[in-house]
Amino acid sequence: MADHRDPAPQHPLLVALACLDTDLDHAAGTPTWSLSPGEAEVALVELAKCRARLAALELTTVAAADRAGVGDATGATSTGAHWAKLTHQTRAKSVTLVRHAAALEARHGTVLAAMSTGGVLPEQAEVIARAVDALPVDRVGVAVVDAARAHLLELAALFDAVELKRLGDRILDVVAPEIADDVERDRLEREEAAAAAAASFTMTRDGQGKARGRFTIPAAEADMLAAALDALTAPRHHHAAHGTDPVPVDQHGDRVPRPLRRGQAFCEYVRTRHRSAAGATATTTTQAGGVDATVTVTLDLAQLTGHGPGADAPATLSTGTRITAAKARLWACGAAIVPVVLGGASQPLDVGRTRRYFTKTQRLTLARLQGGCTADGCDWPPSMCHAHHRTPWHAGGKTDLAEGYLLCPRHHARAHDPAYETTYHRHRITFARTRPMRT
């Protein structure tokens, strides 16, 4: 006799996942080539939201599975290990996700909730959680920690994970400015001491004409090295030094990968420094974008002299790295780095119509103010950018800071392309195509 009883009801989550699986089958069979540019743009945004919502659902389910002891029946060592076996993920990734899920549920429920609506991406959620967890709760209090988390969630609607991390490192400036400098100074002193103690350099020869090495150096010194190497890999320098195309290519006509270009630049850097140390006539500085490969430090007069209110507040490098005031004073004294002193005597910055090109001082100031290419969405560093006049110089524009915008070569060309409409904002430029693309 047939059994007409209804099967055991499934959990609503399993029903929803089955429906989602069906919908994805339908979406996978839909041709994407027929999307218009506008439709493709909407689809990309919606897919990012779906990814965030699915990630949040996965994390909450993982946390529930861990509490339920999934894997205990088979003797698995952990939920993460059991999950890895079921899905063929790496065990390290599975275990890390289980821990991340438990931490978010226990300490950052609002972050997980924002992910579940698609308002915060997984990488943004991780940055927010790390920034909040780094705050000294015993010193700032729970209320300040909650305020920091809430503010970073608001910023997630405006900034990507990289910029959000920078803002998270300085979140106390917003939610607890009265203690922000003291807390950051203590943190930087610990980090600088640990970095100095851990600095190391090892090099071994392979017997075939090459040497391999590893090094560990403080972040500030790494910024200085990166600035020098980026200047040496700049297209104009490569063309001037080697007489070849501005963009280096290999024998097949493909662009040389950045690690290889940096390796070649490091060799050039070592050779240049060696010739200088030996007393030979050589240029020991490389220019990129009209200035020497320079890392600047921004500090006010009190920080430079070590006297007055705020004398011990941390200083900022042009790369965004924060260092203690003591380290900034040491470097400024030894001329190892160019100080940009606020409130003290400085070179004239607005030279009006007396000059066609921006001065080195202006270039350094633009780098400090704008941080790199000002085109929306571009991350090229200042050393690789041109200084662009908002109003062309030949049309009466002035070589003043208010008229200056850093642009990478690609976006500089776009700013002069009549096919695009250029809109200028404060230290930011956006482009909109006004003519159809050629087919």
Question: Characteristics of this structure?
Answer:
HNH_nuc, alpha+beta, DUF222, DUF222 domain-containing protein, 439 residues, single chain, four-stranded mixed β-sheet
Number of strands: 12
Strand order of the largest sheet: 7-6-5-8
Secondary-structure element series: HHHHHHHHHHHEEHHHEEEHEEHEHEEHEE
Q: Helical stretch count?
A: 18
The quaternary organization reads as single chain
* C-alpha termini separation: 69 Å
Measured by DSSP, the beta-strand proportion falls in: 5-15%
Note the overall shape: globular
Radius of gyration: 27 Å
Outline the biggest β-sheet.
4 strands, mixed
Instruction: Report helical residue fraction.
Output: 40-55%
Pfam families: DUF222
Region (Disordered): 238-257
InterPro entries: DUF222, HNH_nuc
Domain DUF222: 43-366
